[in-house]
Amino acid sequence: MMKKILLVIFLILPSLAFSNARPESKYDFPKIEITDINGNIVNPIKEKGNYLVSFWASWCTSCVTEMKNFIATEKQMNIKGVQLILINVDRNPKAIKKFFKKHKLPENTLTYRANMYDALQQFETTGLPITVAVKDKVVISKYIFLSMPWQSPKLIDNIVQPFKD
Questions:
Q1: Cα separation of 95 and 130, whole Å?
Q2: Among 111, 64, 120, 124, CA closest to 84
Q3: How far is CA 47 from CA 50, 122, 150, in A?
Q4: Domain map of the chain by residue range?
Q5: N or C end of the chain: smaller count of CB under 10 Å?
Q6: With contact defined as beta carbons under 8 Å apart, do 99 and 66 qualify?
Q7: Complete edge-to-edge strand list for the sheet that includes strand 34-35
Q8: Which pLDDT belongs to residue 48?
Q9: Helical ranges in the chain per DSSP H
Q10: What is the pLDDT averaged over residues 8-26?
Q11: 2-164 belongs to which homologous superfamily?
């Protein structure tokens, strides 16, 4: 019975998350406590700037593909004036290093941490990964990419378009 409940949850939650893909209107980036890997409170999102902020977890299967895409397109996004920020929501910071090693991701990739429940509640979503576009501390778009191939130049152009508006 438990397996059936879990199966239903995993089938329904992603579709609910995708239904929230765009915010009704622009709003200030929520006040979420963000820390570095050592637990020090930081504020990686400055008053001025273009950011694509991805919330992820090591146990999230869709996050694996998203992380690889995120890292592969970082240079292209930076050229277009968009800084990528990764925020992990695992309870155990050791899970981050294990995740990067297991999936052969660069260990020097800068990632931050936040409380999962705060992040999901603030962005009114029920699933991960979630990526938000932030311009000058204002959320201008919310995306649930799941396993989309970011390397497509057309998709990259579509992602950075809200920053130009």
A1: 19
A2: 111
A3: 10, 19, 27
A4: 2-164
A5: N
A6: no
A7: 27-28, 138-143, 130-135, 50-56, 83-88, 111-113, 34-35, 41-42
A8: 93
A9: 2-19, 61-79, 94-102, 116-122, 153-164
A10: 43
A11: Glutaredoxin (3.40.30.10)
